[in-house]
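Input C-alpha coordinates:
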Protein backbone atom coordinates (compact mmCIF):
# COMPACT_ATOMS: atom_id res chain seq x y z
CA UNK A 1 0.00 0.00 0.00
CA UNK A 2 1.06 3.60 -0.73
CA UNK A 3 1.06 6.15 2.11
CA UNK A 4 1.21 9.92 1.94
CA UNK A 5 1.98 11.53 5.32
CA UNK A 6 1.05 15.14 6.17
CA UNK A 7 3.04 17.02 8.82
CA UNK A 8 3.25 20.52 10.32
CA UNK A 9 5.99 20.18 12.93
CA UNK A 10 8.86 18.04 14.20
CA UNK A 11 7.68 14.90 12.39
CA UNK A 12 8.52 12.36 15.11
CA UNK A 13 5.41 10.37 14.21
CA UNK A 14 6.55 10.39 10.57
CA UNK A 15 9.99 9.28 11.74
CA UNK A 16 8.46 6.39 13.70
CA UNK A 17 6.71 5.19 10.53
CA UNK A 18 9.90 5.56 8.47
CA UNK A 19 11.94 3.63 11.06
CA UNK A 20 9.41 0.81 11.37
CA UNK A 21 9.10 0.36 7.59
CA UNK A 22 12.89 0.37 7.32
CA UNK A 23 13.14 -2.19 10.14
CA UNK A 24 10.46 -4.62 8.95
CA UNK A 25 10.63 -3.99 5.21
CA UNK A 26 7.83 -2.70 3.00
CA UNK A 27 6.41 -6.13 2.20
CA UNK A 28 6.18 -7.29 5.81
CA UNK A 29 4.83 -3.95 7.03
CA UNK A 30 2.41 -3.70 4.13
CA UNK A 31 3.04 -0.11 3.17
CA UNK A 32 5.62 2.41 2.03
CA UNK A 33 5.60 6.18 2.38
CA UNK A 34 5.63 7.63 -1.12
CA UNK A 35 5.54 11.34 -0.24
CA UNK A 36 5.34 13.80 2.65
CA UNK A 37 3.30 17.01 2.52
CA UNK A 38 3.15 20.02 4.82
CA UNK A 39 1.22 23.26 5.25
CA UNK A 40 4.38 25.24 5.96
CA UNK A 41 8.06 25.41 4.98
CA UNK A 42 11.14 24.95 7.07
CA UNK A 43 9.87 22.35 9.51
CA UNK A 44 11.82 19.38 10.81
CA UNK A 45 9.18 17.01 9.42
CA UNK A 46 10.14 18.00 5.86
CA UNK A 47 13.85 17.68 6.67
CA UNK A 48 13.20 14.12 7.93
CA UNK A 49 11.40 13.31 4.66
CA UNK A 50 14.20 14.75 2.54
CA UNK A 51 16.79 12.82 4.58
CA UNK A 52 14.81 9.67 3.77
CA UNK A 53 14.93 10.59 0.07
CA UNK A 54 11.16 11.10 -0.17
CA UNK A 55 9.36 13.59 -2.43
CA UNK A 56 7.85 16.47 -0.46
CA UNK A 57 5.33 19.20 -1.15
CA UNK A 58 4.11 22.29 0.70
CA UNK A 59 0.63 23.80 0.42
CA UNK A 60 0.43 27.09 2.33
CA UNK A 61 -2.99 28.60 2.86
CA UNK A 62 -1.64 32.11 2.24
CA UNK A 63 -0.55 31.12 -1.28
CA UNK A 64 -4.19 30.64 -2.30
CA UNK A 65 -7.09 33.01 -2.83
CA UNK A 66 -9.39 31.07 -0.54
CA UNK A 67 -9.46 28.20 1.90
CA UNK A 68 -11.40 26.16 -0.67
CA UNK A 69 -8.67 26.68 -3.28
CA UNK A 70 -6.08 25.57 -0.75
CA UNK A 71 -8.10 22.48 0.06
CA UNK A 72 -8.39 21.57 -3.62
CA UNK A 73 -4.68 22.18 -4.18
CA UNK A 74 -3.81 19.96 -1.22
CA UNK A 75 -6.13 17.23 -2.52
CA UNK A 76 -4.50 17.43 -5.95
CA UNK A 77 -0.97 17.40 -4.53
CA UNK A 78 -1.80 14.27 -2.53
CA UNK A 79 -3.68 12.63 -5.41
CA UNK A 80 -0.61 12.96 -7.63
CA UNK A 81 1.04 10.23 -5.51
CA UNK A 82 -1.89 7.84 -5.82
CA UNK A 83 -2.02 6.97 -2.09
CA UNK A 84 -4.09 4.12 -0.67
CA UNK A 85 -3.99 5.79 2.75
CA UNK A 86 -3.24 9.34 3.89
CA UNK A 87 -1.87 9.87 7.41
CA UNK A 88 -2.05 13.17 9.27
CA UNK A 89 0.84 13.02 11.75
CA UNK A 90 0.73 16.35 13.49
CA UNK A 91 -0.80 18.11 10.48
CA UNK A 92 -2.37 21.21 11.97
CA UNK A 93 -4.95 22.17 9.36
CA UNK A 94 -8.61 21.17 9.01
CA UNK A 95 -9.21 19.80 5.51
CA UNK A 96 -12.35 20.65 3.56
CA UNK A 97 -14.96 18.86 1.52
CA UNK A 98 -12.85 18.45 -1.63
CA UNK A 99 -10.11 16.65 0.29
CA UNK A 100 -12.64 14.51 2.14
CA UNK A 101 -14.50 13.72 -1.08
CA UNK A 102 -11.31 12.12 -2.38
CA UNK A 103 -9.77 10.66 0.78
CA UNK A 104 -12.54 10.38 3.34
CA UNK A 105 -12.58 6.88 4.82
CA UNK A 106 -8.86 6.43 4.16
CA UNK A 107 -7.51 9.54 5.91
CA UNK A 108 -6.18 8.81 9.41
CA UNK A 109 -5.27 11.36 12.08
CA UNK A 110 -3.50 11.03 15.41
CA UNK A 111 -4.55 13.30 18.28
CA UNK A 112 -2.73 13.66 21.64
CA UNK A 113 -5.80 13.23 23.86
CA UNK A 114 -8.52 10.64 24.51
CA UNK A 115 -11.23 11.86 22.14
CA UNK A 116 -13.95 12.98 22.50
CA UNK A 117 -12.19 14.72 25.37
CA UNK A 118 -9.99 17.67 24.53
CA UNK A 119 -10.30 17.95 20.74
CA UNK A 120 -8.59 20.71 18.79
CA UNK A 121 -5.14 22.20 18.60
CA UNK A 122 -4.34 22.18 22.35
CA UNK A 123 -5.44 18.75 23.56
CA UNK A 124 -2.43 18.25 25.83
CA UNK A 125 -2.67 21.70 27.42
CA UNK A 126 -6.45 21.37 27.87
CA UNK A 127 -6.21 17.99 29.62
CA UNK A 128 -3.54 19.34 31.95
CA UNK A 129 -5.52 22.51 32.71
CA UNK A 130 -8.63 20.48 33.37
CA UNK A 131 -6.83 18.38 35.95
CA UNK A 132 -7.39 15.08 34.13
CA UNK A 133 -5.64 12.17 35.88
CA UNK A 134 -5.27 10.15 32.69
CA UNK A 135 -5.10 11.32 29.13
CA UNK A 136 -3.52 9.72 26.06
CA UNK A 137 -3.80 9.61 22.29
CA UNK A 138 -6.34 8.65 19.68
CA UNK A 139 -5.91 7.39 16.13
CA UNK A 140 -9.08 7.98 14.13
CA UNK A 141 -10.45 8.43 10.64
CA UNK A 142 -10.97 12.07 9.73
CA UNK A 143 -14.52 13.18 9.04
CA UNK A 144 -15.92 16.66 8.39
CA UNK A 145 -15.63 17.68 12.04
CA UNK A 146 -12.61 18.58 14.18
CA UNK A 147 -11.20 15.37 15.70
CA UNK A 148 -14.69 13.79 15.55
CA UNK A 149 -14.18 10.87 13.14
CA UNK A 150 -14.56 7.15 13.99
CA UNK A 151 -11.95 5.99 16.51
CA UNK A 152 -9.58 3.20 15.47
CA UNK A 153 -7.38 2.92 18.59
CA UNK A 154 -6.47 4.76 21.79
CA UNK A 155 -3.62 4.66 24.28
CA UNK A 156 -3.74 5.84 27.90
CA UNK A 157 -1.08 7.98 29.57
CA UNK A 158 -1.07 8.94 33.27
CA UNK A 159 -0.84 12.63 34.11
CA UNK A 160 1.76 13.32 36.80
CA UNK A 161 1.52 16.15 39.36
CA UNK A 162 4.82 17.60 38.17
CA UNK A 163 3.86 17.54 34.48
CA UNK A 164 3.98 20.63 32.36
CA UNK A 165 2.60 20.61 28.81
CA UNK A 166 5.83 19.59 27.08
CA UNK A 167 6.70 16.81 29.54
CA UNK A 168 3.22 15.36 29.25
CA UNK A 169 3.19 15.72 25.46
CA UNK A 170 6.54 13.93 25.18
CA UNK A 171 5.20 11.05 27.27
CA UNK A 172 2.03 10.93 25.15
CA UNK A 173 4.10 10.92 21.96
CA UNK A 174 5.95 7.80 23.12
CA UNK A 175 2.63 5.95 23.20
CA UNK A 176 1.27 7.74 20.14
CA UNK A 177 4.15 6.79 17.86
CA UNK A 178 3.76 3.09 18.69
CA UNK A 179 -0.03 3.23 18.30
CA UNK A 180 0.19 4.97 14.92
CA UNK A 181 2.78 2.53 13.59
CA UNK A 182 0.65 -0.41 14.73
CA UNK A 183 -2.64 0.96 13.33
CA UNK A 184 -1.23 2.06 9.96
CA UNK A 185 0.41 -1.36 9.52
CA UNK A 186 -2.86 -3.17 10.30
CA UNK A 187 -4.85 -0.95 7.93
CA UNK A 188 -2.22 -1.48 5.23
CA UNK A 189 -2.10 -5.26 5.61
CA UNK A 190 -5.85 -5.80 6.00
CA UNK A 191 -8.90 -4.16 4.55
CA UNK A 192 -11.11 -2.04 6.74
CA UNK A 193 -14.66 -0.84 6.71
CA UNK A 194 -16.42 1.88 8.67
CA UNK A 195 -19.92 1.18 9.94
CA UNK A 196 -21.24 4.36 11.52
CA UNK A 197 -18.81 5.05 14.35
CA UNK A 198 -17.39 1.52 14.31
CA UNK A 199 -14.16 0.70 12.47
CA UNK A 200 -13.74 -2.93 11.44
CA UNK A 201 -10.27 -4.04 10.33
CA UNK A 202 -10.43 -7.49 8.72
C1 LIG B 1 1.53 14.87 17.81
O1 LIG B 1 1.40 14.60 19.19
C2 LIG B 1 0.18 15.04 17.19
O2 LIG B 1 -0.82 14.22 17.75
C3 LIG B 1 -0.10 16.48 17.53
O3 LIG B 1 1.12 17.15 17.36
C4 LIG B 1 2.18 16.21 17.56
C5 LIG B 1 3.00 16.19 16.30
O4 LIG B 1 4.22 15.67 16.64
N1 LIG B 1 -1.12 17.03 16.66
P1 LIG B 1 5.28 15.31 15.46
O5 LIG B 1 5.26 16.46 14.48
O6 LIG B 1 4.82 14.02 14.85
O7 LIG B 1 6.58 15.16 16.21
Amino acid sequence: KRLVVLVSGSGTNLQALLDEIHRTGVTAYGAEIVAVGADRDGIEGLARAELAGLPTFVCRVKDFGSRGEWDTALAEAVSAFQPDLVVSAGFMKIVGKEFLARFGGRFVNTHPALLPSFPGAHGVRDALAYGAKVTGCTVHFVDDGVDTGPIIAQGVVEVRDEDDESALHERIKEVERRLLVEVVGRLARNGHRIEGRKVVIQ
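The two ends are 16 Å apart (CA to CA). Helices lie at 12-24, 26-29, 44-51, 67-79, 97-103, 123-130, 165-189.
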